[in-house]
C-alpha cells in the first residue's frame, strides 16, 4: 500500500504551482505522480477558477504581453502606433483604456489624443472625398484614391464609416437580336413631333398577361398629348384583329 501524502506537502505543492512552477518538476522533487497533482488541481478551486485554469490564463497573459511588446517595437519603427491604438479602441469599445496605454507604451492622455487626431483626420478626408464626388459622382474608392493620391484601403474605410456611396450608373439594356436585323422599311412618322392638342398622335403596343394559368394578350392605344389610354382590347390570340379591335 502507498503511504498517504501529508496535507502539508499537498498544500506546499499547490502553492508552488500557483506561483508558476512546473508540475513535472514538482512531481520529481516530491515523488508524487503528475496524475495525482493534476487531480488535486481539478479539485482545488481558486474562487470560481481552478488552479490549473488559473495558471493557464496566467501563462497566456504573459505570452500576450510579450507579443504586444514585440508589436509595439515594430509599430514604433513604422511610426503608426497612434493609428493602431485608435483602431483598437474604436473596434473594442469596452476595452480598458489604461491597459491599452500601458501595453503599447504611451500615456493615457496620449491615447485620447490619438483617437481625437484620428477622428479629425477622417473628417477632413471625408470632406475631400465629398468634394471629388461632387465633380465625379460615379467615382468609386479606387478612382477617388487616385484623385487624392492616397491609399485605396484608407479611402474605402472612411467611405464605409460615413456611409458615402458613389452614384451607380444604370446599365443600358441592349436588344441584341434587333441589332442583327435589317432596318425596317417603315419610317417613324412621329419622330421629333410634339402635339399641341389631343387626338392628333396615338401610340400603341401589346403584351401578354398570365391569368389563371392561361395566356391573354392586351393591346392598348395612348394619346401622346393627354397620356390617356383611349383604346384597349384583350384576346386569346395576337393576330391583327387584336390591334384593330383596340383602335376602333
**How much of the residues is beta strand, in percent?**
5-15%
Q: Give the oligomer, counting copies of the same chain as homo and different chains as hetero.
A: single chain
Largest sheet: 3 strands, antiparallel
Classification by helices and strands: alpha+beta
Total number of helical segments?
11
Uncertain segments are none
Structural shape: elongated
Order of helices and strands: HHHEEHHHHHHHEEEH
Radius of gyration: 39 Å
The number of strands is 5
Average pLDDT, rounded to a whole number, is: 78
Distance between the termini: 116 Å
> Main sheet: which strands, in order across?
3-4-5
The helix fraction, in percent, is 40-55%
Describe how the helices and strands are arranged.
Layout: H1 7-18, H2 23-30, H3 34-43, E1 45-46, E2 49-50, H4 51-78, H5 81-91, H6 97-104, H7 108-135, H8 141-148, H9 152-161, H10 176-179, E3 202-211, E4 214-223, E5 229-235, H11 240-247
Antiparallel strand pairs: 1-2, 3-4, 4-5
Task: Please explain how this structure is put together.
The longest helix has 28 residues, at 51-78. It is built from eleven helices and five strands. Strands 3-4-5 form a three-stranded antiparallel sheet, with helices on one face. A two-stranded antiparallel sheet has the order 1-2. The N and C termini lie far apart (116 Å). A hairpin with a 2-residue loop joins strand 1 and strand 2 (49-50). The chain has helices at 7-18, 23-30, 34-43, 51-78, 81-91, 97-104, 108-135, 141-148, 152-161, 176-179, 240-247; strands at 45-46, 49-50, 202-211, 214-223, 229-235. The protein is of the alpha+beta class and 248 residues long.
Amino acid at each position: 500500500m502507498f503511504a498517504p501524502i501529508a496535507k502539508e506537502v499537498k498544500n506546499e505543492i499547490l502553492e508552488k504551482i500557483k506561483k508558476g512552477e512546473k508540475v513535472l518538476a514538482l512531481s520529481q522533487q516530491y515523488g508524487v505522480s503528475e496524475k495525482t497533482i493534476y487531480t488535486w488541481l481539478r479539485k482545488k478551486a481558486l474562487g470560481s477558477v481552478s488552479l490549473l485554469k488559473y495558471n493557464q490564463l496566467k501563462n497566456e497573459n504573459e505570452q500576450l504581453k510579450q507579443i504586444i511588446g514585440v508589436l509595439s517595437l515594430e509599430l514604433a519603427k513604422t511610426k503608426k502606433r497612434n493609428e493602431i491604438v485608435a483602431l483598437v479602441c474604436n473596434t473594442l469599445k469596452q476595452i480598458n483604456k489604461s491597459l491599452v496605454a500601458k501595453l503599447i507604451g504611451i500615456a493615457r492622455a496620449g491615447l485620447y489624443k490619438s483617437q481625437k487626431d484620428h477622428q479629425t483626420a477622417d473628417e477632413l478626408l471625408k470632406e475631400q472625398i465629398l468634394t471629388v464626388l461632387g465633380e465625379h459622382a460615379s467615382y468609386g474608392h479606387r478612382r477617388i484614391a487616385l484623385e487624392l493620391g492616397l491609399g485605396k484601403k484608407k479611402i474605402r474605410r472612411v467611405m464605409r464609416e460615413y456611409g458615402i456611396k458613389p452614384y451607380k450608373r444604370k446599365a443600358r439594356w441592349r436588344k441584341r437580336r434587333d441589332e442583327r436585323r435589317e432596318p425596317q422599311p417603315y419610317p417613324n412618322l412621329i419622330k421629333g413631333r410634339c402635339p399641341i392638342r389631343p387626338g392628333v398622335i396615338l401610340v400603341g403596343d401589346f403584351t401578354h398577361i398570365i391569368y389563371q394559368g392561361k395566356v391573354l394578350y392586351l393591346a392598348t392605344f395612348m394619346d401622346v398629348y393627354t397620356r390617356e389610354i383611349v383604346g384597349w382590347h384583350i384576346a386569346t390570340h395576337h393576330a391583327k384583329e387584336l390591334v384593330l379591335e383596340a383602335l376602333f
